[in-house]
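step 3/5: co-fold with TXE
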Amino acid sequence: MRILNYIDGKLQEPVNKKFLDNYQPATGEVYGEIPDSRKEDIDLAVEAAKRAYPIWSSMSPGDRSKHLMNLSHAIEKNLEELAQAESKDNGKPLKLAQTVDIPRARDNFSFFATAILHEENAMHDMGKHAFNYTLRKPLGVVGCISPWNLPLYLFSWKIAPALAAGNCVVAKPSEVTPATAFLLSKLCIEVGFPAGVLNIVHGLGHHAGQAIVEHPDTKAISFTGGTETGKKIAETAAGQFKKTSLELGGKNANIIFEDCDFETAVKTAVKSSFANQGQICLCGSRILIHESIYEKFREAFVEQVKKLRVGPPDAAETQVGALVSLAHLQKVQQYIEVAKREGGNILCGGTEVQLNQPYARGYYLSPTVIDGLAPSCATNQEEIFGPVVTLMPFKNEEEALAIANGTKYGLSATIWTQNLQRAHRVAALLEVGIVWINCWLVRDLRTPFGGSKASGMGREGGRYALEFFTEPKNICVWLNQ
Ligand code: TXE
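step 4/5: write tokens
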């Protein structure tokens, strides 16, 4: 697959004609190439977006909505092809791409396409003297930079609200998983999406990504990725007073109280630890268990984890596919070594899984459960972002909260209890942006999505995203003589 940039409605090579290898995680083989775009490509994309902006931003919400719905329908029509491409590019089970990633990308477009049909603006009445009304204006050209773990899902989660609000977009998917963003650009051409409104440029973060952030004409940056990268983006953007929305890492606590619905808690904890090979920012990577049920939970949990089937992404029975890249596999393995040095007990997993040809060189790791580590050690503090989870006992609610809140991250948490008062009390005291009570990853696209502390700044979702991608302008009208 030879991937091309999508600029001004056309597929094109990067100006320098240089390409990077694209790897298939399931086999470890190079299976395509992607543009190694630089500043000059971003300049072209921003110019195209600026030309398209006057028409796109002044279109009625109804007309913009129709264009976005066309993309949603095109994703639905091509769901199978997109799911195959996502699974091949990322290593995730095909079934997951078919049932979660691609349907969600479709829904991201339809959600924001219809949301703008129901928008209302504020009016502040000052009695007989005057009144105010508030316009919400798009920002202009905005940059959207997305990661590799949920490629089309997170890419569309940014560009759909940005476009719906009337902005033109320069977007860069992760260089590790560029395939479905490229297929989306082909769909844009197929459905006649207006040229220049959405531009998709491929390349490395420190080249193409950095150029989007530095460009004086990108008015806002919506970013999802690692905390270190987010910090760098925030520093660059601050100098230009650019708006930023940063969705970064997590080290989420999954708190299991003694009165939980045990079977459901165990089953869901397996999912929240290892879905997408543990490469979801919302995964519950630290399981805190009340000491009275610690042993019982550990036994039941490890037994179920051992049964998870690691295998080729396209095999129907596979539950855990390949990690996204060799570099990432090695990073996760290093963390397992750190856990051993810190004195952790590897209760299961921790080793590479050797599959037969053609998958023998793929990046497979067995789901890993570790206990016996203090909350303050590196394994329990740093984001591993792989199929690795730790178990820790706690004595009471206060201790559970202290452990849960005791990291630099603050993205999400899960609470398992049948005690209504405790559930709400603990939820209110958790220093995170999202809490699930007796469930995990149940999503309503209208709700605020994002984290606090080192997990980021700002919120995505529903009106929060539409507010981020617009600027309020108050107009005061004097009525008296
Ligand atoms: O992400 P990066 P990486 C975490 C996870 C992972 C770590 C690093 O812990 O191990 O981050 O992953 C672009 N200016 N998450 O290195 O580098 C880059 O090209 C502008 C959490 O793959 O942050 C890609 O498109 N852009 C996470 C995007 O940023 C830059 C999801 C993310 O890449 C840039 C993924 C720069 N200077 C990883 N440098 C989550 N929150 O869900 C890179 N990029």
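step 5/5: annotate
The chain has 15 helices and 22 strands.
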